[in-house]
Amino acid sequence: MPATTTTTPEPATEPLCALAAARERTLALASAIPDADLERQIDPLMSPLAWDLAHIAAYEDLWLGHRHGGRPLLREDLAATYDAFETPRAVRGSIELLDAAGARDYLAAVRARTLEVTAERGADPVLYELVLRHELQHLETMLQTLALARLPGFDPPFRRPPAPARAPGRHTGLELVAVPGGTVEIGAPPDGFAYDNERPRHRVDVAPFRIGRTLVTNASWLTFTEGGGYERRDFWEDEPWAWKQEHDITHPRHWQRGPGGSWVEWTACGARPLDPDRPVAHVSWFEAAAFARAHGARLPTEAEWETAATWDRNADPRDGHLGQDAFDTAPVGAYPGGAARCGALDLLGNLWEWTASAFCGYPGFQAFPYPEYSEVFFGRGYRVLRGGSWATDPRVASPAFRNWDLPQRRQIFAGVRLAMDEEHA
To answer: What percent of the chain has pLDDT over 70?
Structure first.
């Protein structure tokens, strides 16, 4: 049945509109990239972008066409190739994949089947939300790849500049605000969509603490860098120090010395002078922990972070730098409408924030809808990140959402927010 003539039951209207909007964004991004760059593996840590496109199609077909619709897979011959566990990133650049045109055709064919299935069976709200958020999260992964690529002349026509600094030089990331302690509830509420690792919601005791009003800025990190922060052994624990020495880490990943010794920062759309008011980005957990130690502070636990991430009724937590179309960070504090009750700014958006917490299941965790989403990563050295970045869609960003990565990773859009025990502040 042609997609243009498909009619859907009223309950399916919103999920289909949301899927269509996400797909429009996916295709717009892909159209701004030459096919040759879509098809090559830009970095060994990342997939070829054409793999991401076909993986989005395969995931949608698995959950909506096959499991929801009861139909055979559209391309069973591609199932293993575009399964994230069957085909790990290490081999995706060396095996035969669909080219860019083939990946686009696959996306279109799967979406046509989704519309047919929806017309026949309606839309299961959990499965459709799962597929939608999967695509939105893979868009962020593709944007990570583009930040590594540094494609000459890349400047999508839909790029939206971030808000300017409201008070240049006012914030450094070293200012802390008080958060009262107590018994608090952590995790996603029982109603609505959430990932398995966000549940069950549970109570924890949190001592009073202080947390950074903003993310740490480039200005503060520059002082750390040029003041010997990467050479001071006492700032680094054993494993981070060995990693730093092995890989000759001396500054954040996308910083580079420019003409006359000044610093520039690379973005997906080219280099610009290092902006002192923007948050330091693309730093590892290892670097974040060293910076915190150098300042007599620490990283917040994820329970502390979520305790701080509460808003008054008249505040909008998503009034921040989100949306996947800016291709750069915003100056810290540029979105005061999103201030949390404690006074912390930018808790949702701009950059993911490393926490001190290892990634594991909450008490009473149950895998859903499959163990590979979360459970296989528990207890393997991953650290939790919170908050979302400029490359995160507002539908995904929430106070309960848990991201995770290995402590040495610097390809993600990650920054640093400090914390301190109240008694030591």
So the answer is: 97
